[in-house]
């Protein structure tokens, strides 16, 4: 059992933050992609929010939670991923390697016609990585 848990944690830490692939996609496409590419994450349909439309996924060990925000046309305009603090250094290294620095704990990149900003916020027991559509060129 410990080996399985350790394996899951390693996979979650080493899986790249591919939230940028969701910006602009429909909710249906995102659900299909999450089911295919992130089988360790479970959709959570128990919470309804009248202000924000989003899809929520979580890991069985509660070490990772994804909120994928949708606009009025059911298209993704942002992703917030919360991780357990243990993967912080590896995630910062990955963000530095993948994206252009835009300041302290902030990066940006282009995806097609979109400019995406990525922000990292560290708390005591967890940290969040947020991808937001900054500009559509």
Estimate nothing, just give the exact number of structural domains.
1
Give me the strand/helix succession: HHEEEEHEEEE
* Helical/strand content category: alpha+beta
Spatial ordering of strands, largest sheet: 1-2-3-4-8-7-6-5
Beta percentage is 35-45%
Radius of gyration: 15 Å
Helix content: 25-40%
Structural features, described:
With 137 residues, the protein is of the alpha+beta class. The protein has one domain (17-136). The protein is 26% helix and 41% strand. It contains three helices and eight strands. The protein has helices spanning 2-14, 27-37, 88-98, and strands at residues 41-43, 53-59, 64-70, 76-84, 100-103, 106-111, 114-122, 126-136. Strands 1-2-3-4-8-7-6-5 form an eight-stranded antiparallel beta sheet, with helices on one face. The longest helix has 13 residues, at 2-14. The chain is globular. Mean pLDDT is 84; it is low at 2-18.
């Amino acid at each position: 059992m410990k080996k399985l848990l350790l394996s899951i944690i390693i996979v979650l830490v080493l899986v790249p933050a591919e939230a940028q692939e969701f910006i602009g996609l429909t909710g249906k496409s995102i659900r299909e992609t999450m089911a295919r590419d992130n089988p360790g994450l479970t959709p959570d349909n128990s919470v309804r929010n009248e202000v924000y439309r989003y899809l929520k996924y979580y890991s069985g060990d509660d070490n990772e939670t994804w909120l994928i925000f949708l606009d009025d046309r059911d298209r993704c305009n942002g992703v917030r991923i919360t991780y357990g603090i243990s993967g912080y250094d590896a995630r910062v290294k990955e963000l530095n390697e993948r994206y252009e620095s835009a300041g302290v704990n902030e990066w940006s990149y282009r995806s097609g016609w979109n400019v995406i900003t990525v922000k990292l916020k560290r708390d005591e027991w967890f940290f969040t990585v947020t991808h937001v559509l900054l500009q559509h060129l």
